[in-house]
Amino acid sequence: MIINMSDKPVILLNIDSLMPNPLEIAIQTGRAPALQFLMEKGSYYPNMVSSFPTMSVTIDSSLLTGTYANKHQVPGLTWFDDKEKKIVNYGTGFTETFRLGMRKTIHQMLYDLNHKHLSNEVTTIYEELAKKGISSASINTFVYRGNTPQKMKVPRLFQTLTTFKDGKWTAEAPPIISLGAFSKIRSRSFTYQIAAGNYKYTAKELRHLIRKRHLPKFTLCTFQDLDARIHLKGPMDMKGISKIDKEIQKILNMFSTWEKAIDEVVWLVMGDNGHAPMRHKYKEAIIDLRKVLKDYKVAKIERPIRRKDQLVFCVNQRMAYIYLLDEAISFEQIIKQLRQDDRIDIIAWKGKDGVNVTSGSKKGFLRYDRGCAITDVYEQHWNIEGDLDLLDLDITEGNKISFDDYPDVLARLHGALHSHTGRFLVVNAKPGYDFKAQHTPPHFRAAHGSLHKQESLVPLIIAGTVEAPIYPRIINLKEFILRIIH
């Protein structure tokens, strides 16, 4: 396959939950030769900042739109729609999904996420490329919005689980889309999972495009399997990386040599979020919000919101949204009880003068907002007053804010708090701890979702170009990708 060197396609391999430390060890021990080759022939960024919450749908929305949640308006894997008075859940776990209603959850995941919830005020990479007449592909990614009408179909066996008429719907998507059994590039292929293909299926779809010379100018290809392994086996699991690397080897083998692969294609490999290891005694690791706020009537997920319901919990693993439905309840009342639990390191809420922050593990108070008094390392401007230690902020030479435990925390936390309407707080758990509410799925060995650097710093490999993102952040990848695609 000969491609004009000034007109190279871009393939972005998004490996769910790929983290810098296990990746580097896998390479050093010879378990990931394909990733080692791409890293040695290109550039490696071990600390790219993810979005917040560190949950895939929010991260993918940030990747594709180049914005945080305040702009793209996908607040997390689960959140409360204050306008429609209902919990939105894109699939946090079987029990929770079953209680909320399987048909409703599947519809929110497959349709509402892209066509209702992802803001029309932002554009995706697919939409931007289409304006220029440039083709693109989405393989195995639930955030897929483009502007090409695509016929999607639910297999007959599963049509009773959806609300689509005859199991069919039209999606606004890229020109090429693969999403498990709902839309396949290889029409006769077997799908291992109903919602999305496993890592072998995903790699086969990409290889098919290369073999048939149908590779578009941009392809986003997501490998989801590693995340589930790490939840069960812990952050240092190597077998999952090795399995995916073998599939990447097969992809590179489609070219006459691996060197030829990077001569003809720009390769990007990234993780989307990390994981924090859980405490060995699982019961000690759980922050049950129902017990912390036991004095209030909490809405049950299996029934509509009632007048007497006072609070709603939407748990995104190691972060959670707490919604105050009862106007008679003040933020101060809830915060007072949350501060009694030292496993909660950040408690944040919107105020008239900006974002307010306190903690269960530290003393003090912090308030900040967009302004011009001080600049951070990403050239974002803020007004800040209070205890900087609450967000582990430091003022460096040149009067700039730098971040440590919570990367780009000012913009990411601001983004989550301004991602949707309603009266709510954001709570963030210390490493080793996980939030729980009604029917929240357990995460025995590792979890993510929080602002902490364990979950927020992910690797990025770039091979086939000397260009680089302006900053090593997921929200800067859109500009970078559009810059290198002609």
Structure commentary:
The protein has 486 residues and is an alpha/beta fold. Helix content is 29%, strand content 26%. The protein is built from 17 helices and 24 strands. Strands 13, 14, 15, 16, 17, 18, 19, 20 and 21 form a 9-stranded mixed sheet that branches. A hairpin with a 3-residue loop joins strand 19 (393-396) and strand 20 (400-403). The two termini are 19 Å apart. The model is unreliable at 1-6 (pLDDT under 50).
Q: Determine the fraction of residues in helical runs and give it as a percent range.
A: 25-40%
Anisotropy-based shape:
globular
CA-CA gap between termini? 19 Å
- The secondary-structure class comes to alpha/beta
User: What's the total number of strands?
Assistant: 24
Overall mean confidence score, pLDDT: 93
**Total DSSP helices:** 17
List the uncertain runs.
1-6
Main sheet characteristics: 9 strands, mixed
Give the strand content.
25-35%
Radius of gyration: 22 Å
